[in-house]
């Protein structure tokens, strides 16, 4: 279940790519299949071990182009262990809403992105997330849970300003290139879960809707694909923002 549009990101075979907050690796695996040199970065060592194993399985099964590489790295989003400008593309999917010092994390993403490189950031969309928070405190009030709800303007402002020097001069401010919405079929599922209890997986309505989502993901039936395209702009659970780092400082 992918959130980021890699064609819009500009991903090319051979690109050096960072998947920051990779989790179970869904975006890392797809970028690897497309021939990128991928680093799956996360703070969860157990998740990364599983990702590493699947990278190896993909190589053995011949699912990746010759020359593509992939590895994992554990660490802190506030102090990325990479050189300035090391990556051509960066994905940060559904991670910033978990980080208290989100501006510091964004600045690190901008630092390790090369001039001319692109960044995709996805977070829960404002309206579906507000409904979840109103329906259930347990949805977000948990260790490692969501700690904020972004508007598009807030997140665009934080990212575009992240490359500027501390003196407020323009510097190499990030360029906002557009936004998408994704997973419109998933918002109602979480509204149901929040209404009946986020841990109540046995509720009949929650179980039935979960089966529908599994069918969507595994079989991709045309009817649900079309329904998703209609619902994504209206109630898509995720908002995806795309940015580019200027080739040179503005005004240089």
UniProtKB/TrEMBL annotation:
Residues 18-120 form the Methyltransferase type domain. GO terms for biological process: methylation. SUPFAM superfamilies: S-adenosyl-L-methionine-dependent methyltransferases. Keywords: Methyltransferase, Transferase. Its EC number is 2.1.-.-. The keyword Methyltransferase applies. One of its GO terms (molecular function) is methyltransferase activity. PANTHER family: GERANYL DIPHOSPHATE 2-C-METHYLTRANSFERASE (PTHR44068:SF11), ZGC:194242 (PTHR44068). This is Class I SAM-dependent methyltransferase. It comes from Nocardioides bizhenqiangii.
